[in-house]
Records
---
Amino acid sequence: MDCIWDTRSRLCFVLLFGNLLSSFVSVHGLNLWPMPKSANHGSNTIYLSTNFQLSTHGSNYSDGSGLLKEAFERMVNLIEADHTTNSKFPNYSVLAGVNVAVQSPDDTLNFGVDESYYLNVPAKGSAFYAQIEAKTIFGALHALETFSQLCYFNFTTKVVELHAAPWTINDLPRFPYRGLLIDTSRHYLPVPVIKSVIDSMTYSKLNVLHWHIVDDQSFPLEVPSYPKLWNGAYSYSERYTINDAIEIVRYAERKGVNVLAEIDVPGHTLSWGFGYPSLWPSKSCREPLDVSNEFSFKVIDGILSDFSKVFKFKFVHLGGDEVNTSCWTTTPHIKQWLNNHHMNESDAYRYFVLRAQNIAISHGYDIINWEETFNNFGDKLSPKTVVHNWLGSGVAEKVVADGLRCIVSNQDKWYLDHIDANWQGFYTNEPLTNISNPTQQKLVLGGEVCMWGEHIDTSDIQQTIWPRAAAAAERLWTPFDKLAKDPEQVTSRLAHFRCLLNKRGVQAAPLVGFGRQVPSEPGSCYKQ
Amino acid sequence: MDCIWDTRSRLCFVLLFGNLLSSFVSVHGLNLWPMPKSANHGSNTIYLSTNFQLSTHGSNYSDGSGLLKEAFERMVNLIEADHTTNSKFPNYSVLAGVNVAVQSPDDTLNFGVDESYYLNVPAKGSAFYAQIEAKTIFGALHALETFSQLCYFNFTTKVVELHAAPWTINDLPRFPYRGLLIDTSRHYLPVPVIKSVIDSMTYSKLNVLHWHIVDDQSFPLEVPSYPKLWNGAYSYSERYTINDAIEIVRYAERKGVNVLAEIDVPGHTLSWGFGYPSLWPSKSCREPLDVSNEFSFKVIDGILSDFSKVFKFKFVHLGGDEVNTSCWTTTPHIKQWLNNHHMNESDAYRYFVLRAQNIAISHGYDIINWEETFNNFGDKLSPKTVVHNWLGSGVAEKVVADGLRCIVSNQDKWYLDHIDANWQGFYTNEPLTNISNPTQQKLVLGGEVCMWGEHIDTSDIQQTIWPRAAAAAERLWTPFDKLAKDPEQVTSRLAHFRCLLNKRGVQAAPLVGFGRQVPSEPGSCYKQ
């Protein structure tokens, strides 16, 4: 005997057990986020063993680093964190564990690594296993996340159930680059906070943490080659050691998340000069970096040399946006240098960006640059460039028409610091708008939502990110033809996901209203 | 060689090592929160071993439940969570661990348990220990928290240091009751979120979690004696099983935090009737609980009987506030009952509260009631009553003059949902205002800050609580004569504590402005 909840009347309808099983499907619907490529299910309920096991029968992946074991334990903890489960248990339809078979023995997280997976949850047996198959361990991690979202706590029996079995899910991401930007220059974010952001990203299968490390306001990172750079930090303790950076990368990669490091040059660099004042055009005119000074490029080379030992992602971000070159023309020694080299301000901007690109390439990186570089001298950029759109829509189509790669972050829709950008806008922002040529479509690597830090610190970062970032995450993961044309069609599923984030301790804000809204009145999480 | 940070100029002054040690004291000051009763220190820096050990030489406490070991490991994790420490290490002035000597073998968390402690950190030796002495394990837990606040990460050597040793700290709380209210009726708070609130309470030595479990809007808790009560929950999954409640109590008690359960009667009870409609005066007039119906008291008895097996705190909270009795006089069968019993509305309100008190007493509880009960019929309340002030100031003095005990939560200063109540008001709110008689002073058990949940859910609870609750926590812990007369004198120390909370992953908001402010501009945590 059990009951079906009617939220309107708050009555609990008692039904026969058999009815309950199928009715849960209709009550909960298919509440996976993001929606998989294909998911088929039946109508049986099965029970998770309280001694749920990981098995790796048929796997080529040895898990020497413990990555899979750790992910499995994390998943079990998530499933069980919410409620104390009962030791009394049905002795039938008990799922004993999950068997994970990974084809590749390699767990290096390269860009474009195969993230696909197959998940099968049978409906019957006395002690049977769910089956996960994946080309790489990173596909298997996504499968575990999907599996966790199939599990429900039954408040009558107090056991964890899996409804609507058997399940067969085939899944893979639409785009290989699904990013979230954090900004540790405008406000320092402690390492445990960055780790919690990484944790939360994995719940909606985002896979790139774009770390906008430094900017005008502060330079929090230790750079061994130029140890005075972090004199530009806000304070003694608002800093990251290089080992902290290594730890953040290690932590992220073990969860399938790449870390994209950014140094934004030549603008947005005021904080660099606190340690090395000669990087400033002058003491009174303190950015962009002095284009006439070889030391500027030596420092960039030192930073990228250090980065190449820490940030193993294929890309480094070199910024290049919002460069106001007036200090170059008003500072006598730079003005003289421009004259000597027959450059105007635009030439010097291009010269700086391209030279920085070459330095990055010499350290093995492909480069990401903000779109102003493309808008000003797109034909001169290295073919290794990925153009990062932000100013508005319509840029990606131009970039890929020119044969370059692109990442979409148009600020009107995908800037999380725009509090008036609602989740519906995040959901409907389509990276391939006006791009129909399949070759050009492939040049759009994906997109990224940006959590700029002017008004963001530990106190408000997570509720400003979530649930809006999750709306974009489905756009980036789910096949186009499975995406809702009208975002209101996914409201209840996204609300369900936001409540799931809450249960996992993530401070995801209500859906109603704009970003970071506080609840407007008492009510259910699922309705707010 | 190292540097002293000048936040204004962002310059790092190089000093000889010996200078550094003493200068850290002036840079960081005495940044403990709350301020201990007495703290003396020297000027030496010592280093925490990377293999920091717990020892219990001379302790009578066997730690059979692992409570101390767990607390020690938690503390080490907190100290080390922020930055990766270096394996290279000085071979002198290394603190090998902490020795904890507890007098009492008992780790039952009774109300008024001795929370005092003595902490000594020596300055010299080759492999020496800090010494903690406490009457009970709960004093020792506070000592570990204080110890953790003495530790700093050195960004040059990458080791954890303890500055200004030797330290001798004698400490004990001013009030035995230092509470925080959470409200799971207006919005459901998942169990992991409640646990994270409990964690954060221990950082400022709060020791009572007042769990306002149910109210008009929802009844989320399973009550085994009356299993339909939680039909009044918002939804199927926004509920706590009785085992969840047991787990919350267990979790809190292991950290020295008592859980005060509240059922607010006879008002604030609309949600009760979804499961048992006869508790409503009528279907159209649904609160207070039907005073004429014996079933109302049977249900209260059942709840408190179940509570007595779960909530082992000396007190249960029976509410009693904001009772609008109009449904009693407009519902014919109740009106008739009132007439039969020669009661008016006030009489019936008193009758209900006193009868509920007697039920609680029969289950072994002392009772806490909101102040309206005292304001209306204070002379009739059980001597086991603690009056919970909330409407305004000036109540405690009347309560204790009448020989009853009191808890202070005047809403103008200590209601966290009052977003316009600033931390300065939380800090300066004095529970003993106008109470000079020592016997009467002892009747003020302490105070409580209240996080009512109308606009609070997982997304915004922690930054609405912190740092303002911490300001009240010092008022409740620190001896009166060590409290700042002008709150601005503690601004930088409180800012330091708020940044410490952030480093520990707690979403404490900026100090500047009112409650739950987002950062107004880029800047250092220590300045916002």
---
Amino acid sequence: MSRPPNDVIIVRYGEIALKSRNVRDRYEKTLMSNITSMLDAMGASYDSVSRDWGRIYIHTADPAAAQAAARVFGVVSVSLAITCEPTLESVSSVAADVGQEIIGEGQSFGIRPRRTGNHDFSSREVGIACGDAVWQRIEHQGPSVDLTNPDVEIFVEVRQNHAFVYTDVVNGVGGLPLGTQGKMVALVSGGIDSPVAAWLMMKRGCEIIPVYVNNDPFSDETNRQRALECIRVLQTWAPGYSLKVYEVPGGEAQVSFLSDCQRRYTCVLCRRMMYRIAAGIMEKERAHGIITGASLGQVASQTSQNMLAETCGIHVPIYHPLIGLDKTEIVDIARNIGSYDASTRPATCCTAVPEKPATSAKCGDVCGEEAKIDVEELLRTALSGAKIVEPSEYS
Amino acid sequence: MSRPPNDVIIVRYGEIALKSRNVRDRYEKTLMSNITSMLDAMGASYDSVSRDWGRIYIHTADPAAAQAAARVFGVVSVSLAITCEPTLESVSSVAADVGQEIIGEGQSFGIRPRRTGNHDFSSREVGIACGDAVWQRIEHQGPSVDLTNPDVEIFVEVRQNHAFVYTDVVNGVGGLPLGTQGKMVALVSGGIDSPVAAWLMMKRGCEIIPVYVNNDPFSDETNRQRALECIRVLQTWAPGYSLKVYEVPGGEAQVSFLSDCQRRYTCVLCRRMMYRIAAGIMEKERAHGIITGASLGQVASQTSQNMLAETCGIHVPIYHPLIGLDKTEIVDIARNIGSYDASTRPATCCTAVPEKPATSAKCGDVCGEEAKIDVEELLRTALSGAKIVEPSEYS
């Protein structure tokens, strides 16, 4: 006798459940909408998406739908399950069918029962009934019961109006539903760090507006393409949201830094200009902050002293989600989210970087350098040259 | 025949090796000094600490020294090892002694050879010689060689003037040596988040100046003790550095917020005052920034809109290392670093928190509320009441 087919994906979410009723309701709706968009984007088949008491259900037998749901921000875990009646007879029969199919010769198994709602039996009785039923069905192959570390786990979850039987709990990406935490401008250079920084904020529910500062002629099309490829990866995590991508010319400012300012301050001056550009776009888009990929001490110029000098006089909230992470941790995330390959494509480095960049720039000195050039005019020029990148360039 | 005793701990570090020669030299010296402090603080016995070509060596047979070294920021991994001559005869003899001691009946083993320097043999020959020697010594117990997934690994590392044999590589905490990345003011409330945020910045090499804002009479001594207990945990990670801990009275400002400002803005106004207090101490201590435990969307008031309103007009760099992390990730770090128990001690909550805090505060509205009170005077009062907490209170 073959087991009934999987017919539902149970989607679990974590932090949302801690919110007040109204907030939770709003977050759940956003999450359902985001799940639907991801299912569609990844070509998974499904009948419908519903919710009930702190869970979302995708009605489908398609394993690809489980993979898609696990990629949606806010989802803690998913399980492809069989729906049955909330009775001991029904769950134990299905558990036995499932056990027969997946428990191998001589393997141990454990039932993981759970129950919510009003029934005339306890979760312990669910465990006993299902364990007995599985045992009887496969007795001939010498099974054993092991509740601590079994070879095979069978989860049986009885709720008020139905029950579920499943064997796998797949981790989701976690976080909060995209679209619930405002929006920010994300500076994306195409290196390993900046896409990871943007992704972490997306994971916490924040919409992003990617900005690529094109320092042509100090960088070239390989650099630009690499950044767009990273943005393409970020877009795959936000299928219901069409990213608005800005490209802003920064080359003219570089020319000024190189011709009029002390060479060792180029990187600090460049970052200040990038922050100003991002702040300009933030204002235009009514966003709430700026995201960078800075990690303390990772490269010579990422000192706390430089970071202080990079922001003096620039009055917008700047978020550095990677500030406390090691390069190895950042690379691990980049691999997991799929941006690592994009970020390590061959691309030219910025040719404006000095041989010996300042590592302890002072606010006063930096402002003194800026006094030699017309920062406001350079910023105006850059922002007036800003353009929206066609979605076809990164999708 | 028993194997020779362990006599050295090999300490490996990661990102430091990527730095320029001068920076690397400085970082290595700091790391050695920090390791020595940790060994002393944890009561590990050792003869000396030395360095040679991208490694640091602790000359000791004490396993506690390996545990201590693994807790030092900047250390990627440690191995307790046996030193021997850099010859095939010596390493294969020691490898055989080690193999005899630790390879059980019927277990598989693999040699992991590595060689740097000039020798008249290759690393492959090291592997073959050691593998043969181990095999001959334990042939009677039916061993097998498995280079992919062996039960027991024996690492043999030949360097110019000596060689090492060891079996374990224990992960260190990573990061950069404490003291190499400037210093910052860390707001520590005693909850789960703020100590983790401070620790992550310490991990990246940043010295911290903890600041506890005491909102008495809206919080009490249990709250203060919890914060000090968290600071005590942080101090154990920085044995060579005596933390300078500030306690600043914030209660008077709360009284003003409660009596003169709209109730729902209390938390935003309170955070702004805390940032101002921290900025005052930052200036006094010539620090480079402020660290907070904010995580986007974790609680109702941590919206990106509120965070924007919390900082408008406050012009210092504010770092939120947890901004992109989930609560579960933060709790995992808290458990690993030992602050979780301290943060979850019973303590009263702040009684000034309104029932319905604003979740989308606007800069203009917040500044309008502040115009009703004398923020500058409240700040002066708070800072003039700042005192340094006696180390005996958190050690």
